[in-house]
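## retry 2 of 3
previous attempt timed out at serialization; input unchanged, resubmitting
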Amino acid sequence: MSIKLIEIIKRIPFKIRHEYLESKYSKKFSSFKEAKDFCNNISKGYGNKDRLYCELELFQSNIEIFSYKWGQQHKFLFECISSYLNHFKTFPRILDLGGGFGNCFFYLKNIFKNTEINYTVVEQEGIVELSKNIDFKCKNSDSINFYESIDSAIKKNDYDLLFSSGTLQFLDNPYNTLDKINSSNFKMIGLTRVSFSYNTEYYSQMVYYKKPSNLKKNIFKDLPKNFYNNFVLCYPHTTIEEEKLLNHLKNFKIDFTNEGIEPGRFKGCYSKDILLIRNN
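## retry succeeded, writing output
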């Protein structure tokens, strides 16, 4: 029996359980509040402390990998910066909405080695607090900061590029956040992995964590022992109307888009990259 076939067979129990949990916990609701209440009853949503501490341990154990590990969001961030440099000839001050512990900062440091990088992350309270335990090994000219809200970040500093990956759909009121972004002084806005749909809808998104059978095949060299512990997390999820998003960002126009980036998480949903530039 081939190794590939063995691996496929090993994944069958996980796939069966995942589909069962998906049917049990991924549901549609009439409001964001209903979705949020449902998710909080299961796993306390985004603020699940077990998840936050495990993700911190995972981040710290593999911090050097983030300099060269890249995904769709990193590729698009590079495209955003390239376009910004083409338009404005200087490196942008970046505000990353939903940037986790700042892995994109390490990615940029590796690419733009001789460039001063001013990077700020807006994240939930738990991540902002835990980020104080991370040594970011900044050069004298580099900086990374964390804030719990876009309001506090904008109040303290000025930014050129707003970047956000897979975050808008998890906010309590994404359109309210878009209004704040629209009224700010950003020169460009880069959005990727947004959950778009033709109508605004509300769901609970299930994530099932299972410990891999062979850690050596995982992209991270050291997984914290408690990270994958066969547990379920649920997040409230709002699908975003693309036309409505653009209407809320009326002070900006599209610079470019990338179509068909990822399949939609729910039926009728789709994802794409959108880079916007402020109107003259």
